[in-house]
Amino acid sequence: MPRPYVLLSVAQSIDGYIDDTTPQRLVLSSPEDLDRVDEVRAGCDAIMIGATTLRRDNPRLRIKSAERRAARAARGLPEELLRVIVTRSGKLSPDLRIWAADGDKIIYCPGDAAGDLRAALGDLAIVVPLGEQVDFAVMLDDLGARGIARLMVEGGEQVHTQFLLADLADELQVTVGGFFVGEQAAPRFVTPGALPASAFRNRRPTACG
User: Fold this and answer.
1) Model-level pTM greater than 0.85?
2) Partner of 163 at 20 to 30 A CA spacing, among 88, 115, 189, 191?
3) Domains in the chain: ranges and CATH
4) Is residue 44 classed exposed, middle or buried when 0-12, 13-18 and 19+ CB atoms within 10 A define those classes?
């Protein structure tokens, strides 16, 4: 089976941060852009985030529009996307909001984390071990075998960085909020210094906003 088409989606500040260091989630998008992102979500089969983002933001990753969910159902699709989580530590609480949301969830993790995850979460999610480290190419092969044709990746920093380092991203959609964050400890779109400029110097951006 072919791998899914991979769309990286991110909202960042002018200086490249995706959040600040306060406990509250920093909103970087306008209501109009959030609606646009919801429309993009509705056109995908699965949505992915890393465990750090899941623990920090505690999202449900729903398609917010009831009309879009109904339109998916009318096409014979699940109303909600498959939620995909990638974790290295396997430390995910069963109390996170995502587990109570409608729709299937799948977690990719190193082999030595799978047992603890299954014990902690039970039947809340499918746990797929991928060797000593999570190989993103192998993960995409597995998702393709599960019928996922289009994957939307919403972060965070380490996940976006790994997709770009492995040259596994097909499209990038970036929203730039009209302000600076300027906190060195805050998470960025990609890890500073991780991506050599030479790897992207001759490429044209696919999409930005």
Assistant:
1) yes
2) 115
3) 5-199 (3.40.430.10)
4) buried
